[in-house]
Write a structure and sequence with these properties.
3 helices; 64 residues
């Protein structure tokens, strides 16, 4: 649960901006989208490996 301290002198726009920033940083929406569909561990591991290979290839091209 996100808690935003709102002072009487601050505007609702500022509080809303704080809330949006805190919500984005908490990763709640990202976690919700990740949990929406089940992904087998083997599939997630394969995507990690492919991503690492791609990053290594890009890094190698930039160096050479």
């Amino acid at each position: 649960m996100l808690i935003i301290d709102v002072k009487d002198s601050s505007s609702i726009d500022r509080a809303l901006k704080k809330y949006k920033r805190k919500f984005e940083r908490s990763g709640t929406l990202k976690e919700l989208r990740r949990r929406k569909h089940y992904v087998k561990p083997s599939v997630s591991r394969r995507t990690e490996v492919l991503k690492a290979k791609y990053k290594a290839e890009v890094q190698r091209k930039m160096e050479g």
